[in-house]
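Section: Multi-chain targets

For targets with more than one molecule, the full set of components is provided together so that the structure can be written out for the assembly as a whole rather than chain by chain. Components appear in the order listed by the source. The example entry contains two components.
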Amino acid sequence: MAAKKRMNKGWKIDLEESLRIAMSALRANKARGVLTTLGIVIGIVAVILTMTAANGLQSTFRQSFSAVGSDVIYVSRFPWVMRDDFFVYRNRPRLDMRSAIDLERRLRGRAIVNPTLGGRQDLKFRSEIMEGISIVGTTEKQTIVASAQPEFGRFITEFDVTYKKNVCVIGTEVRDALFGTANPLNQEIKVGRVDFRVIGVMEKQGGSFMGGPNFDRQVFVPISTYVKVFGGERNRDVNLAVKAPSQEALSDVEFTVVGEMRKIRQLRPSEPDNFSINKLDTLVGTFNNVMGVVLLVGLLITSVSLFVGGVGVMNVMFVSVTERTREIGIRKAIGAKPHSIMFQFLFEAAAIGLVGGLAGIAIASVLTAVINALVMPASVSVGILVTAVVVSIAVGVVAGFVPAWKGARLNPIDALRYE
Amino acid sequence: MDRSSDNLPAAGDTALSLRDVYKTYVVGTDEVHALRGVSLDIRRNEYVAIMGPSGSGKSTLMNVIGCLDVPTSGTYSLEGQMVANLDEYELADIRNQQIGFVFQTFNLIPRANIFHNVELPLIYAGVPRSQRRERVERAIERVGLANRVKHKPNELSGGQRQRVAIARALVGEPSIILADEPTGNLDSKTGDEIMTLLDELHRAGQTIILVTHEDYIAEHAHRVIRLKDGVIESDAPTAGRAV
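Its structure, encoded as tokens over all components, is:
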């Protein structure tokens, strides 16, 4: 306590001096300092790359699910992320067109409801064949509910739905596979065994994320045509997309949808919902959990390399303290207090850490640029840089603590006599 | 501890005062009695030489006087302040403000230039930068090295280095200058120059304690204290060249 009080007097001047000594010590031992930082450099590179990779995955994820829309909830029989036994969901009644129309009527003026039906079919155009492509029966409201718009041609209209037209709008990967660079508009392709006329091509939506749905690899057809050609909703579930007027209104809309669905299903208050409400948040939450684990494992591995770097710094700091035993004696004889000596060595250790950290940042920035160009979108954020700097300094300080303490505790008489 | 404190002379003109000072070291299982009941008073502006063969305890006495070490028993007061029982931080403050060390081996910081070496005691005393500059320059001027301020210690001769050490001892305006064999590493001509400088400081009012085993160095002092086996063998005034 008393020591702390005495420390306050002129502590700023003390720190200044400590910093000055640390810098001159580093200048005097450049080669040694550089070699010592190597461990920290590797550690910091690993930390930055782990965090950058995590960020990159996250933005890829967001991009590929942007089609889902953050102001839309989906009513379906199954949840996107199953938490209970599959049989609980399997025993639920199917969602059919009737209840879809019922819900739409009940929500009229409050939200837009778009029913979809889906299945997999083979596509064929002349000699080109694509197998097991997702066919989505939908309505003209698809482009209101989801953000993706046709890039060429047009989307399905109310007219197409009413008159069960054999028309389709294809994703960019489907176009590339079937038509290459040729113009697909007004060409007839076979979906299953039936001919459909291509009326539009959707804009690119970013492909699949880690085996998830690929919105560029699907074909839209009018939902009425889908029922007519591939069989009705008797053995397929209708999915309902409900778009809220705004993102803020989403939770109100969700509440209303649950209420109206329970009325449609005639559920008693004690019965649980026999349908699922899905939204982007559910996916994001699950993704974040997975990312958390990935990040944790990555950081664990990188912390091992930082630990090794720290041990290197500690080793050099012990050498530095021993080398300067006499200097410590001189400083103590003319009035340096233990904490002044301590700061001197802590600054030196922190500076070694910082140099390593900065070198690590430089190398990691180059590697990130390479990854960005070749593997996936990646960029180093300010947050990551700040983390790297803080971590590298912290490693230095922690590693320098014991050597600095040793120096600070030296008896001035013995230290002065040291040769 | 305080039993003899009422015997101490009034602090008025006394720089330091030791009473029954014992210092015992434990080396392995043996006890080494370095000091065995040393009592002495040194007045302000006194010029004292402490002499004795090696093993006589003069280094230990110097360490105690310089507050690098505390006595095992007995009392030591410096400028009226009791030094026994002080902790490491308080001792550091006393060394910083009351004592100026001059060592046989100069003990300058090799990487720091002359200015910075002399500045160090003021830095540890917490003197702001604006006041340090003038005081450092004055001290360096006093030892006649004003044109060497930017040099590093290894660019100077032995005599010049010792002058820097003296400037460093002076800069904090200490009560006593404690010179441990200040000429031990110098040739006799340079040694004489250093002694002349110390004599000048004494004439200007500085209290100086000199530890030496050379009679011709001790002759500069007013008073010679001879130690043997940890006790004072003799304590007498000298003809004193400096008188």
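Chain A touches chain B at residues 2-3, 6, 9-11, 13-14, 16-17, 24-25, 28, 326-327, 329-338, 340, 412-413, 416 (CB under 8 Å).
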